[in-house]
Amino acid sequence: MAVMNTTEESEKKSLNFIEQIVENDLREGKNGGRIQTRFPPEPNGYLHIGHAKAICMDFGIAQRYGGVCNLRFDDTNPTKEDVEYVEAIKEDIQWLGFQWGNEYYASDYFQQLWDFAIQLIKEGKAYIDEQTSDVIAAQKGTPTRPGTESPFRNRPVEENLELFQKMNSGEIEEGKMVLRAKIDMASPNMHFRDPIIYRVVKTPHHRTGDKWKAYPMYDFAHGQSDFFEGVTHSLCTLEFVPHRPLYDLFVDWVKEGKDLDDNRPRQYEFNKLNLNYTLMSKRNLLILVKEGLVNGWDDPRMPTLCGFRRRGYSPESIHRFVNKIGYTAYDALNDFALLESAVRDDLNTRSTRVSAVLHPVKLVLTNYPEGQVEEMVAINNPEDPNSPTHTIEFSRELWIEREDFMENAPKKYFRMTPGQEVRLKNAYIVKCTGCRKDDEGNVVEVYAEYDPNTKSGMPEANRKVKGTLHWVSCSHCLKAEVRLYDRLWKVENPRDEMAAIREAKNCSALEAMKEMINPDSLEILTDCYVEKFLADARPLDYLQFQRIGYFNVDKDSTPEHLVFNRTVSLKDNWSKINK
Fold first, then answer.
1. Residue 465 C-beta-side C-alpha neighbours within 13 Å
2. Per DSSP, which regions of 20-62 are E strands?
3. Would you tell me the crossing angle of helices 509-516 and 282-290 to the nearest 10 degrees?
């Protein structure tokens, strides 16, 4: 008996079920031992976090097994598609760290699909139906009741061919005619009940212009496109499970008469990425954008990849999250906190530590020499033993966080309060001596005395104090705008909640969304201060504002007006708030 070593055993256990299928297909020599996948987005919107899971699967399988993953745009509906989305999709895939082998479009195969449809008509496997979509839907029956055949089902071949040509010539108006595959109106699989495979669309196509007026449906174009390209593993999400028999049937039909030794694409399905407090339908995201409920597709509150990128998520954190939740054959609702945890874990290893004060109050060190300035050394990332350092100026007057001072503090308050010592990070130990208030009782200045023998690095610097505060020098800092982003929705399952609201109130999706949106999803702070080191920070620089959270430079930021986005807080405060 062969003995599996520990490494082999560990690797075997780590395989997800799709990888196990792929390895089994390779052992059996299917498709000549080739591995070819594809990522087939429709260019009708920006990619969201759900697509990231499919991207990691499609490209990851190809990488792991020495294959190729192609990018194919499913551009069969010109009414919703745009070149803007094509370019955005490519940018997102590359940001995630992947590169496709070839770039294809379903429109590359319009002529081949048309010819195939002609072949089916000639073989008596397709016919033109002139009924309305509502009538056709009603005639399909139910899962427990067979469908009713269309009165056009046995139309003569020549008449079908003539009408099909008219569908593409512009003579037929949209909705007046469709081409249906003739399969089985009594099949227990509803998708086999004479599915529509072509319809009329008169909107110009972003690649083919006005050449085509008849366009293939997804179920007809998808499998054949996989076949034309030589895809071996067509990896889809679970909603395509009932479509798989139709996928296989169309591949069988297009293969007829070809000696291909079983070289064919095979569809396998895995679970979608579902997140609570998140709405991911591109249709609904488009409503948010068009109605101005968010500031574009890359609004940092959006679940789009470009939104997460702008917010400060790293591609590695997305990979980490996808690996955490894994791939299964059943759907589940994942906690958004798990995504944020993956982001924190990743950013902790790569972010530069800096000082920033978001709600400032002035701290005056009354015994520190006026006019004196010291440069304190700060480590960029203490998690990295080879981390570089930078300097931060220290002076008599500093900004500290308003919440870090309390005049009458409880017993376990270890920050700044009269008579108590704290350490100013990378600097000195100071003892609070009091404060000054305005006429309304608001604290405007805090006073303290510093101990010159406790500078970081000095022997007495090791004196124990329970609190360490961050700070910036009033005369050596930069003013900044800070945007504190939170979850866009105040309900845990916005998709189901929206459906319930619409049913109860008979209202539009937009009206339902307005009821669910979190009014506190964005707070803009305009009187913040950051250390001068951030003058040269750029978008996609990963930062940790010490003791506050992880932040990123926004694309709106300029040298004259710095803007930072909160990526995620240092700890998960949302769960505590919503218990």
1. 24
2. 36-39
3. 80
* 70 contacts 103 by C-beta, under 8 angstroms: yes
Residue 353 near residue 383 (C-beta atoms within 8 A): no
438 backbone dihedrals φ, ψ, rounded to 5°: -85, -175
User: Given 3-state DSSP classes, what are the helix, strand and coil percentages for the chain, each rounded to the nearest 5?
Assistant: 35, 25, 40
Residues 87-92, mean pLDDT to the nearest whole number: 98
CA atoms of 499 and 477, how far apart (whole Å): 49
Contact present, 361 and 406 (Cβ < 8 Å): no
pLDDT at 572: 76
Which two three-digit tokens encode residue 512? Answer: 């339902």
pLDDT at 461 over 80: no
Residue among 6, 11, 16 nearest 326 (CA): 16
118: helix, coil or strand? helix
H or E stretch at 479: strand 477-485
For residue 259, pLDDT beyond 60: no
> Distance between CA 395 and CA 475 in Å, rounded?
8
**Confidence (pLDDT) at 256:** 76
Strand 443-450 versus strand 233-237 pairing type? unpaired
DSSP character at residue 205? B
Question: What is the model's pLDDT at position 325?
Answer: 93
What span, in angstroms and rounded, lies between the C-alpha atoms of 87 and 46?
A: 10
What Å distances lie between residue 48 and 41, 51, 277, 285, 464, CA to CA?
11, 5, 14, 10, 48
What are the beta bridge partners of residue 214? 200
Up-side HSE of residue 164: CA atoms within 13 Å toward CB? 27
